[in-house]
């Protein structure tokens, strides 16, 4: 719906973590699904659409994610959602500022729905994150259930970022992949690869 109203263009990515989404963009998307918005962002209702039901941490802490603040108390310009958005970000010259996506296959950042190969182009993905700052012997792929990297600060607050569809702290079960043409399919974790980031690592 957003693309239909914006000449097939998609909104830009908002932050380093792929689940970050600009606050104004979330307001526009919520209007598209018919939600009544308040004038104050703090009072904007949290939409379940932005969070996977499998992620218990997000279910318990949606308001904290939705109205995210940095550790120093300053309000972030983006919201922390429950999905990876493979949205491209362009500089003033119209060039992508996103790093190359790692791993095998023809993976790419998405700018528009008017594209060739829309049926194989991945757009939105269930969160599969790992924190590599743990024992490599015990957690060879990192910890998927307690993400300390970034500003989650779970070791102080008891609030950890976590993978959706979590199989154990050692890995996720897999995730749903939403494609540009609108269809969705399940991908098992064994078929996922490290694609983006270092702390934390984004898998799909």
Please give a structural write-up.
The protein is α+β, with helices and mostly antiparallel strands and 204 residues long. The protein has one domain. The protein has helices spanning 2-5, 23-32, 56-60, 62-66, 154-157; strands spanning 20-22, 78-80, 83-85, 122-126, 129-130, 166-168, 171-172, 174-179, 184-188, 194-196, 201-203. The longest helix has 10 residues, at 23-32. It starts with a helix and ends with a strand. The model has no long low-confidence stretch (mean pLDDT 88).
- How many separate helices? 5
Give the strand line-up of the largest sheet: 3-4-8-9
Mean pLDDT comes to 88
Extended strand count = 11
Using brief descriptors, characterize the structure shown.
204 residues; alpha+beta; 4-stranded antiparallel β-sheet; 3-stranded antiparallel β-sheet; globular
Sequence-ordered SSE layout with sheet pairings:
Blueprint lengths: L1 H4 L14 E3 H10 L23 H5 L1 H5 L11 E3 L2 E3 L36 E5 L2 E2 L23 H4 L8 E3 L2 E2 L1 E6 L4 E5 L5 E3 L4 E3 L1
Antiparallel strand pairs: 1-2, 3-4, 4-8, 5-11, 6-7, 8-9, 10-11
How would you concisely characterize the structure shown here?
This protein has 204 residues and is α+β, with helices and mostly antiparallel strands. 14% of the residues lie in helices and 19% in strands.
